[in-house]
Write a structure and sequence with these properties.
The chain is an alpha/beta fold. The protein has helices at 8-15, 47-58, 72-80, 93-103, 121-126, 138-143, 156-167, 171-177; strands at 19-22, 34-35, 41-42, 62-66, 85-87, 111-115, 129-132, 146-147. A six-stranded parallel beta sheet has the order 5-4-1-6-7-8, sandwiched between helices. Strands 2-3 form a two-stranded antiparallel sheet. β6 (111-115), α5 and β7 form a beta-alpha-beta unit. The chain is globular and about 50 Å long.
């Protein structure tokens, strides 16, 4: 059964989350970079991830995107999903996350960070729930508290959203909402 047999420590960590922060390339996307003939970048986002992010927000969990790259498609997707906390061009993701934690009056234990590659290690090390997507670099997976079964850009973010909602006792209400 979906979300069954989750370790008690993961559920305890997820129950505390008030902010879920996500890397973009390789986490919300499959990590590939697409450029058109005109040089403009295109990204592909999974619709399941988008609904998961919307449901987190509807249930009182804030969402942030923290990415090292700057990309117009990221801004468009964030706007579409009503994500207020979007930080692009962040060479220091840890510092960015710490500033956001402070601004929102949270503690690190109330924050999840989801990533896939080496620049995601510093923010993962301070997060109360550090998550690696299924196809994350082995060093990242080794530092994560939990790893998704789906790869980045293929529904991994939705798994994280569902985990948090489940741990916070909101899964049944979400399921009922759609019946």
């Amino acid at each position: 059964m979906y979300l069954a047999d989750l370790p008690a420590d993961i559920l305890a960590r997820a129950a505390k989350i008030r902010l879920a922060a996500f890397d973009v390339d390789g986490t919300l996307t499959d990590g590939r970079l697409w450029y058109g003939e005109d040089g403009h970048e295109t990204k592909v986002f999974h619709v399941h991830d988008g609904l998961g992010l919307k449901r987190l927000q509807a249930n009182g969990v804030q969402v942030a995107l923290i990415t090292a790259r700057i990309s117009h498609p990221v801004a468009l997707r964030a706007e579409e999903l009503d994500i207020a906390h979007v930080y692009q061009g962040q060479g220091d993701k840890r510092g960015c996350l710490l500033e956001l934690i402070d601004a929102l009056h949270l503690t690190p234990e109330q924050v999840a960070f989801v990533g896939d590659d080496l620049p995601d290690l510093p923010p993962m090390r301070i997060a109360g729930l550090a998550v690696a997507v299924a196809n994350a670099h082995p060093w990242v997976a080794g530092q994560a508290h939990w790893q998704t079964s789906k790869s980045g850009g293929m529904g991994a973010a939705r798994e994280v959203c569902d985990l948090i909602l489940h741990a916070q006792g909101k899964s049944d209400a979400e399921r009922e909402r759609w019946q």
